[in-house]
């Protein structure tokens, strides 16, 4: 079986869930080879978890530079790993960094790039959802080694314990004239909530929430449901909630089992980021709000009355078990 | 300082967008085309630099004839000249080809200090053209920036992504892509619109930019199938009579969502 290279997303100590998803889908095409780019010692720390989720080899690309420069070390590492292994494909999570790594890699290889895959079959045909959920498209690479970014949350991680062989990639020294240096890092507080793109429940607030204080009510409902919090662009622009929680065309695309929109009108650019959710619930006091036209359950009412009542009911139900 | 701004014309994201039945590329004929909002912010950042330093701004766009309107709009905002890359052979270009062509156009501008771009195109862009252009030009990629400082031959920037914020530092020349949070773009003034009509725009084709591109590939991927997804329909709707929260909870329980 050919190798399928997977770029490992990690924080230095732990492998991110999206990488386990990649390892699971990689097996459809070949033997998963995990590429770890990090400071010296990282691969050894991550080895066991990667092997447990199906990596048959771990390529360690370690250097001091790896954490100090933006994106370039990962591109260099994958390029070298590709030249070493001639893989059947390279899979990278479709995160902000991942998209850039994958595209630069594809450019260096002169290879076809497929972005934001939600499915992938054993012949390498990828399924994508484009234009904010208006089309399902199936595509394939016609030239070069397929480089594919995979939407986080699209696949289930699967344990597949085995032994992984360790290989070493010697990273070139990064030229500071051609790469940006990361001089400070303020990691988003992880908090207790699931990540927006991975959550099975997302509760989002819009301008109707009225202010940063109002978002507490959104958070309380999300917590009762074990979900993530999202926001419309109007709510983000007004400073009610941080930018990284924005859902929509210029924010995150989410596709949870349940999406609850509180005080969101349902502009087309917002729908673009959430209309592939399984079930959509909306609370809006305006009966004409477009979000109500696609909600599986729409409540015309004041969110300040409806949401707390729902939170109490859900919490009570949870308490009973 | 020489600044190049990369701008794209896209279908208005407020309207419905369709794929052509014949080749699955974007159906431009049926769409209202606009300068992508994010590119107005990239242009605004260039214009702000021009206010504090001596700068010359070149706007570059690759697209059909209509893309000239996008270029004119940025000229009306205050940019100095345009390069319009227009060639039928570029129809359906993939990300790599787009980035190669844009990089070649940037190379035609002498002594570039800064390339500015949007961080993501609203027509389903990969959010990666700027990173690839940087790679091809061997420039540091300073992407997804919500705050930018250019001073003493260096760029310092605040990058914001789902993982949080990082501060980036790089020497010029560099490539910077901006997020929608970086600034509020200005409107072109009437005077600006009039002046834009007289500003120079060079129209160039593939042969001008990549004369010896042997085995030119417009795309390295192929769409096998494109199926419109059925629009969603409304389900149950209730008006709150004081019990909507409880009814909603009952619905979620019945759907096994709680
Ligand atoms: C290029 C471009 C990209 C964009 N990208 C995005 C994007 O990624 N994400 C995004 O969300 N938007 C995006 N937008 C903006 C989008 O067009 C809308 O402006 C935005 O989604 C509106 O947010 P909203 O629904 O919260 O606000 P509004 O449209 O103001 O709606 C607020 C709603 O709250 C309701 N309401 C008020 N008070 C209450 C109450 N007490 N109880 C119940 N309901 C109440 C109102 O009836 C109203 O329907 C983009 C726009 C452009 C041009
Ligand atoms: N055809 C094009 N012409 C000029 N600039 C482009 C083009 N395509 C992409 N860009 C630039 O790259 C940015 C990100 O696009 P994308 O990577 O496609 O999401 C855009 O905001 C533009 O600045």
The percentage of residues in β strands of chain A lies in: 25-35%
Oligomer: heterodimer
How far apart are the termini of chain A? 47 Å
The CATH superfamily title of the largest domain in chain A: HUPs
Low-confidence stretches of chain A: none
**Could you tell me how far the N terminus lies from the C terminus of chain B, measured between alpha carbons in angstroms?**
59 Å
- Biggest chain pair contact, residues each? A-B, 96 and 90 residues
How would you explain this protein's 3D organization?
The complex is a heterodimer of chains A (321) and B (258). Chain A is built from nine helices and 16 strands. Chain A is an alpha/beta fold and 321 residues long. Chain A has two domains: 167 residues, HUPs (Rossmann fold, 3-Layer(aba) Sandwich), CATH 3.40.50; 120 residues, Rossmann fold. Chain A has a seven-stranded parallel β-sheet, with helices on both faces. In chain A, a hairpin with a 4-residue loop joins strand 7 and strand 8. In chain A, helix 6 packs parallel to helix 9. The longest helix of chain A has 18 residues. The radius of gyration of chain A is 21 Å and the shape is elongated. Chain B has 258 residues and is an alpha/beta fold. Chain B has a single domain, classed as Rossmann fold (3-Layer(aba) Sandwich). Helices cover 28% and strands 29% of the residues of chain B. In chain B, helix 2 crosses helix 5 and helix 3 crosses helix 4. The longest helix of chain B is centred in the first third of the chain and has 16 residues. The model of chain B has no long low-confidence stretch (mean pLDDT 94). At the A-B interface, helix 5, strand 5, strand 8, strand 11 and strand 15 of A face helix 3, helix 4, strand 7, strand 8 and strand 9 of B. Strand 16 of chain A pairs parallel with strand 13 of chain B. The structure holds flavin-adenine dinucleotide and adenosine monophosphate (AMP).
């Amino acid at each position: 079986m050919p190798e399928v290279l997977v770029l490992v997303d990690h924080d230095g100590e732990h492998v991110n869930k999206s990488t386990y998803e990649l390892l699971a889908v990689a097996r459809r095409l070949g033997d998963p080879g995990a590429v770890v780019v990090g400071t010296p010692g990282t691969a050894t720390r991550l080895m066991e978890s990667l092997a447990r989720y199906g990596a048959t080899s771990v390529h360690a690309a370690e250097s001091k530079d790896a954490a100090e420069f933006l994106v370039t070390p990962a591109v260099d590492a994958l390029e070298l790993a590709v030249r070493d292994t001639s893989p059947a494909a390279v899979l990278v999570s479709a995160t902000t960094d991942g998209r850039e790594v994958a595209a630069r890699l594809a450019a260096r290889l002169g290879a076809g790039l497929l972005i934001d895959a939600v499915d992938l079959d054993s012949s390498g045909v990828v399924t994508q959802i484009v234009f904010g959920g208006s089309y399902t498209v199936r595509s394939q690479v016609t030239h070069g080694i397929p480089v594919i970014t995979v939407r986080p949350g699209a696949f289930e991680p699967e344990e597949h314990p085995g032994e992984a062989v360790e290989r070493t990639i010697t990273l070139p020294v990064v030229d500071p004239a051609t790469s940006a240096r990361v001089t400070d890092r303020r990691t988003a507080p992880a908090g207790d909530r699931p990540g927006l793109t991975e959550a099975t429940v997302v509760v989002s607030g819009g301008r109707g929430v009225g202010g940063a204080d109002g978002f507490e009510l959104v958070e309380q409902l999300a917590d009762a449901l074990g979900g993530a919090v999202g926001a419309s662009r109007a709510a983000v622009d007004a400073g009610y909630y941080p930018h990284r929680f924005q859902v929509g065309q210029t924010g995150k695309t989410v596709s949870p089992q349940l999406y609850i929109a509180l005080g969101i009108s349902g502009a087309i650019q917002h729908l673009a980021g959430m209309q592939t959710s399984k079930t959509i619930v909306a609370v809006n006091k305006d009966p004409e709000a477009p979000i109500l036209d696609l909600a599986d359950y729409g409540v015309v009412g004041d969110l300040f009355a409806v949401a707390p009542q729902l939170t109490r009911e859900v919490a009570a139900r949870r308490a009973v078990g | 300082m020489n600044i190049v701004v990369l701008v794209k014309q896209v279908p208005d994201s407020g309207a419905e967008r369709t794929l052509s039945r014949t080749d699955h590329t974007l159906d431009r004929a049926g769409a209202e085309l606009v300068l992508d909002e994010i590119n107005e912010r990239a242009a605004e950042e260039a214009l702000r630099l021009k206010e504090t330093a001596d700068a010359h701004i070149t706007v570059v766009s690759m697209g059909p004839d209509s893309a000239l309107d996008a270029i004119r709009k940025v000229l009306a905002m205050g940019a100095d000249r345009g390069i319009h890359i227009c060639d039928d052979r570029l129809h359906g270009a993939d990300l790599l080809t787009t980035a190669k062509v844009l990089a070649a156009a940037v190379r035609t501008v002498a002594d570039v200090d800064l390339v500015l771009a949007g961080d993501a195109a609203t027509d389903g862009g990969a959010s990666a053209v700027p990173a690839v252009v940087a790679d091809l030009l061997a420039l540091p990629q300073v992407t997804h920036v919500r705050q930018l400082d250019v001073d003493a031959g260096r760029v310092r920037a605040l990058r914001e992504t789902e993982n949080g914020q990082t501060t980036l530092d790089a020497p010029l020349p560099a490539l910077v892509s901006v997020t929608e949070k970086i600034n509020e773009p200005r409107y072109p003034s009437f005077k600006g619109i009039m002046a834009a009509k007289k500003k120079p725009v060079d129209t160039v084709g593939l042969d001008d930019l990549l004369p010896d591109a042997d085995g030119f590939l417009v795309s390295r991927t192929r769409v096998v199938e494109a199926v419109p997804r059925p629009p969603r329909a409304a389900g149950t709707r209730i008006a709150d009579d004081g019990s909507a929260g409880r009814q909603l909870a009952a619905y979620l329980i019945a759907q096994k969502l709680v």
